[in-house]
Model the fold of this input.
Amino acid sequence: MRSVSLAILLCLFIASCGGGSGDDDSGDILLRLWVFSVDVEQDLRPVLDEFEAANPGIRVHAEQLPWDRGFERILLSLATRRPPDVCELGMTWLAPFAEEGVLVDLTDLLSDSMDERTLVDASSYDGRLYAAPWMVGSRLLFYNRAMLREAGYADARPPSTWAELEEMSARIDATFRDRRAIGIPAGDAEITWQTFYSFLASGRVPLLDMETRQPLIDSTEFRQTLDFYRGLKKHALVDRGPQLDRAFGTGRIAFHVSGAWNFTLLPRDYPTLDYGYSFLPEPDFIEGGTGGGAMAGGQLLVVFRQSPRQEAAKKLLDFLASRPIATRLTLPIRSLLPAFADAAEMTEFRDDPSRVFHARIIERSVAAEAVPYWEEMRRDLVTLLDTAMLTDSPLEGLLEQTMTHWSGLAEEYQ
Done:
């Protein structure tokens, strides 16, 4: 039995009994909206007031979900016949829900606007659109300028290729006894795979052939990426993600692959740190200037099929995902941008160099493969990476085991 689908199928069985109307005593339609990323009271409520004013007879109750328990809350809401009408989902959650048929098909509503958006593939499943791209972020290479100058790099320029990263890391290690060149995450369920995936994305190396869903981790490019990444261990501080953020802030590592939340965290918590940010270094197996991206992460908006108010829910989704509203809601969230391809040219951001650069790296970035068994792939990938970074064990057996498992999943979900 498929481990991800089992929980959802159980929810569907119970939810098929039906649910309440959710409308209030006045006869107004009451929509329930669940979000993770936006502050409901400070930022979202004023926007919802505008929506309600423009749509008499519809009211919206918004609820903030916690990141650590949000997915379970959504499953439970299906099981208790009370899913929200509109819900924010992380992009790797879309495919499992779409596979089980719990999402409204939004192709007719959104297809005309998708040419101007990002995260289109992450919002789609089997050729249909099941989500509106809402907000998007990526990873960047942060670097300590002072450490680079002290190591002999007078211009403090970051590495642009893997070869430069290796050479600079070796010199930094030779210069500093009590500091390391780079931070590598391990023992962290999310940051571990996201950082490695960013190195894959810098060379545009896929995990799967999306036509067949067969794994590609036996490709020359994947193996070169894994070998290079593991080779960085000799220059690295290996730790969990939050500890690496602190290590970079306190000047203990020179290079740090991390998210745009650092544009808020670093000036606030480490105001004297002399740092810069850049594209990720590119491997030598791609044409220079075509890689350097990272993992694209994003937030999507969906409507659940169990909603008895689907037409009103689609109006709300379309409103929240529109260019002016998505842009307005991301202004206070430094780690995210509206999921539109021209974010770098938007007047709201063009005077902020860090946000413009973030938009530029998003243009080169790659989202994780949208398959319903991503959670199983993620666990396998984390096991592989923790083994690589925390032990000296050979990886061939584990790679073959992972290949077999992913091939089996592809066949199971055909």
Residues 139-293+373-412 form a domain with the D-Maltodextrin-Binding Protein; domain 2 fold (CATH 3.40.190.10). The chain is about 40% helix and 20% strand. The longest helix spans residues 374-390.
